[in-house]
Amino acid sequence: MFTGGNTMNIAVMTDSNSGITQEKAKELGIFVVPMPFTINKESFLEDITLTQEEFYHKLEDENTQIMTSQPAIGDLTKYWRSALESHDAIIYIPMSSGLSGSCQTAMMLSDDEEFEGKVFVLDTHRISVTQEQNVLDAIKLVKEGKSVEEICETITSHKSDASIYITVPTLKYLKRGGRITPAAAAIGNLLKIKPILYVGGEKLDKFEQARTVKKARKIMIEAIKNDIEKNQFDDYELYIAYTKDLDQAMDFKSEVEKTLNHKVETVAPLSLSVSCHIGPGAIALAVAKKYVK
Fold first, then answer.
1. CATH number of the structural domain 162-289
2. C-alpha–C-alpha distance, residues 246 and 286, integer Å
3. Looking at residue 101, what is its pLDDT?
4. pTM, full prediction
5. For residue 176, what pLDDT is reported?
6. What is the CATH number of domain 5-34+70-156?
7. For the chain, what is the largest distance between any 2 Cα atoms, rounded to a whole number of angstroms?
């Protein structure tokens, strides 16, 4: 573990699964590694050569083949080397190891002689808006002059203090991505089932199902309320994430704030890596304990 104390110049880095755009990264003074896509055999990088609008246009075309992957080793190390030109150490917060192999790859790379003691990869078991919370908290801790050890310990010790629930309007994209069988998708669509997925800990699980989006939203709100009570969060933040439909997200924000009597901190689009598997019109509600003031 790095022992340089709090006089080190520490860089904060994440990947685009956090939902942090390249433009916002510049404002925050951090680094964001773009997630790669292959669309009809052509390579793209999220938010660099592929915008949200272009992505959904391609995704909604039945003849488009979209594949997600993790950043190439050479690309990741390029980002690390670039950041280390102006920083003594990097705290890298990628998406959950339970959802992608990119976190394990980064951890193995950080053990190489070139990066050992300089790059610290944190598996916080998070994605999207809760992953972004980790990043923003890391920035605050760096500005407070905390050491690498203190920042890593603070963030990883709270990795379980968050949960996300997602509902999708159609099973079509889960079927296309191989997440469910064609037969299950056909039956689900026939019955107008709206699955509610849970992201917490190390994986994505089916939580419950509803017959309408309205009912699914109510189930998500109740689930978040139960998580707050069960985990005894005395101070927490609520987040909403969505795919393509901002109007629906803002309407849901009003419903959440009225029901839970608590401000929604952020309404943000889901990363394209997630959107690829759930399609447009999906909506998510998340809660995370507030542990950095």
1. 3.30.1180.10
2. 16
3. 87
4. 0.90
5. 62
6. 3.40.50.10440
7. 61
